[in-house]
Design a protein that fits this description.
CATH class of the largest domain: Alpha Beta
Largest sheet: 5 strands, parallel
Helix content: 40-55%
Number of helices: 21
Shape: globular
Strand content: 5-15%
CATH architecture of the largest domain: 3-Layer(aba) Sandwich
Distance between the termini: 36 Å
CATH topology of the largest domain: Rossmann fold
Length: about 575
RNA sequence: GGACGGGUGGCCUAGUCUGGAUAUGGCAGCAGCCUCCUAAGCUGCAGGCCGGGGGUUCGAAUCCCCUCCCGUUCGCCA
């Protein structure tokens, strides 16, 4: 328990005790943080019960509370009980914890609970575009947060190597002669292959013969034709190679890749079919397709039937996804799926079907809205896209020119290495900073923002702190509260003390967009401190201030690590 | 038409779950700040009927009802 939690607990028991003394124990009340107090208790809700006005009640209660422990003062103001936290305790404890725990500061002890986080899982039919880029970034940030919350986290990508889209791609790659389509100039398999996907789609629409060939391939695929299946798998595998490169470029690495076709091959999708057929909700359409009726499971609308086989008995996407989730729960205690908002209904059907099958565990979903372009939706097929690779390149190039304009003492490689970190930081930050379900329109100047509320702003502060420590040389740690008398120091330390709470919220409540806001708060507090308080030039405060600089650097590193953003030591 | 999201200064955005004291931060704009630790920075100014209308409450951006706008979805697609 950190000093903040302890403070909150003590405020609670102090108010409880005071309420008991005036003969009204057990009344409910809120505790809130504000500018006026470290913790405030509004007394308005007591008014009715106590037949008195809130102002008087607050004053009566305040008189009954003697500050002690983490509470340094209580005041009644306008019907609020305003509690202030013991600053000395906060300062000492926060700084000492950071020094002692380092990169683990803000993390919770191991829980012994395994969480599977499935994210990205984009169709291997083209490069990742920014419309979908929220998925890996949110998913990876969530996974990192959960790790710090004490979970054993495994990340997983579900590769859809089944179905029409990959078959079309495979047909294109196998049948369209090299050189007859214009490949993208980028030398990366996903960018090379997408040209064939686009062309195959075009030919399929224009040429019935092609359409028939593709339909035939699809039939063979579903009949279990090993030749077709392995050709599709091979193509998907090649495409995936390119996607992995892109992901690695934004610091996203997944622990496991699971192939959809495996659930057909091992028969587990068929098992799902049998189990669902046996439930009391199951039925068959006139054509013989099987379904379960989900009207008792909160699915509304005219069609509440969830169909899980075609009329020829073959399985559907969601049927395989059910098998996949059953498999996940053999390996994990919890499963979280990061999904596009178009999956909302499907996800609900999946959960209901799992319930019908008697699964004890149900996946938790986290949704995001698609990023669109000012001119509308992105589409790989139509070529109306901004690829993530292009965004990264642009961000890195922009960072490169910034560095070039302000540094003349670095080699080309050094500058490029820093530029990569900054460009990626800008991209990741910009995407996680907004609430996932908010619709986002992609604009280059926003995506490439390096000022103010941005990743580079935080990285800059980190680099500043590093530079100061380098220049400082030897110094001793000092956490003596009396040495931190300046208001800017106190604000900064208070900000540092909040890391644990923010990580808890990001992981446990899946509110990852709290992390960038917090990083910005800490960085801004540091910049103010930096502008107003001399560090290296101070005499008696030097050790204390350098300790604060070091602690800030640690906290920023931890936040940036949670965000999957690198921390260059100079920039 | 139903379901589910989103609507907060010119632009982007936090806060909505768990109702509280002057609504968060940034971009763009204006005015200042580098003989001092990295100006990707700091300070100040200006900018808001929290989509609209009702209601509940001592108190509503937040809860309830209605309504408008935007997005997603309602396949024997994946």
């Amino acid at each position: 328990m950190d000093s903040r939690q302890r403070f909150e607990q003590e405020v609670g028991s102090a108010v409880d005790a005071a309420l008991e003394k005036i003969g009204s124990p057990g009344l409910r009340y809120a505790k809130e943080v504000s500018d006026m107090a470290d913790l405030a208790v509004p007394c308005f809700s007591f008014s009715k019960e106590l037949r008195s006005d809130p102002k008087t009640i607050a004053e009566r209660l305040a008189a009954l509370i003697v500050p002690s422990g983490a509470i340094s003062s209580v005041k009644a103001v306008n019907g609020y009980l305003n509690f202030m936290m013991d600053e000395a305790l906060l300062i000492k404890e926060t700084l000492e914890r950071i020094l002692a725990e380092g990169s683990a500061y803000g993390s919770m002890p191991r829980k012994g609970v395994t969480v599977n986080v499935e994210h990205t899982s984009t169709n291997p039919t083209g490069p990742i575009h920014v419309g979908r880029a929220r998925n890996p970034i949110i998913g990876d940030t969530l996974a990192r947060s959960l790790k710090r919350c004490g979970y054993d986290v495994r990340t997983e990508y579900y590769v859809n190597d089944v179905g029409k889209q990959v078959v079309i791609l495979t047909w294109g790659v196998n049948n369209i002669p090299k050189g007859s389509v214009e490949e993208e100039e980028r030398d990366k398999t996903d960018h090379k292959l997408v040209a064939y996907y686009r062309e195959a789609n075009k030919r399929m629409e224009e040429d019935d013969g092609v359409k028939e060939q593709i339909a035939d391939m699809l039939r063979k695929f579903e009949d279990g034709d090993n030749g077709v299946i392995s050709r599709v798998r091979e193509t998907a595998e090649a495409m995936l190679g390119g996607l992995k490169e892109t992901l690695a470029g934004i610091n996203v690495e997944l622990d496991k890749y699971t192939w959809e076709s495996d659930f057909i091959a091992d028969g587990s999708a068929k098992d799902v079919v049998e189990r669902l057929k046996g439930s009391k909700y199951s039925g068959q359409t006139d054509d013989g397709a099987w379904y379960v009726d989900l009207k008792d499971f909160g699915i509304q609308g005219k069609n509440t039937k969830f169909i899980f086989t075609r009329s020829d008995g073959t399985t559907l996407y969601t049927t395989r996804d059910l098998a996949y989730h059953l498999d996940k729960f053999k390996r994990a205690d919890r499963a979280i799926d990061v999904l596009g908002e178009d999956q909302k209904l499907g996800s609900k059907q999946l959960c209901s079907a799992l319930e019908i099958m008697g699964s004890e565990k149900i996946p938790e979903a986290m949704f995001y809205s698609f990023v669109s372009l000012p001119e509308g939706k992105m589409s790989t097929r139509k070529g109306v896209v901004v690829y993530l690779d292009d965004l990264i390149d642009e961000a890195v190039a922009r960072a490169m020119s910034e560095i070039r304009s302000r540094r003349d003492d670095l080699s080309e490689e050094e500058m490029l290495s820093i530029a990569r970190k900054i460009g990626i930081g800008a991209v990741r930050y910009n995407i996680v900073r907004v609430h996932p379900e908010k619709q986002l329109v992609f604009k280059w100047d926003e995506a490439l923002n390096f000022d103010g509320n941005s990743g580079p702003y935080i990285q800059y502060v980190h680099a500043r702190a590093c530079s100061m420590m380098k220049k400082a040389g030897e110094y001793g740690h000092c956490t003596e509260p009396a040495m931190f008398a300046d208001e800017y120091e106190k604000v900064l330390i208070k900000a540092l003390s909040k890391l644990g709470g923010v990580i808890r919220e990001a992981g446990e409540e899946k509110r990852v967009h709290m992390l960038p806001a917090y990083g910005h708060e800490v960085a801004a507090a540091f910049n103010q401190f930096y502008a107003m308080v001399p560090v290296l030039a101070s005499d008696e405060n030097r050790d204390a201030r350098l300790t604060l600089v070091e602690c800030t650097r640690t906290v920023l590193r931890n936040v940036l690590d949670c965000l999957g953003i690198d921390c260059p030591e100079e920039m």
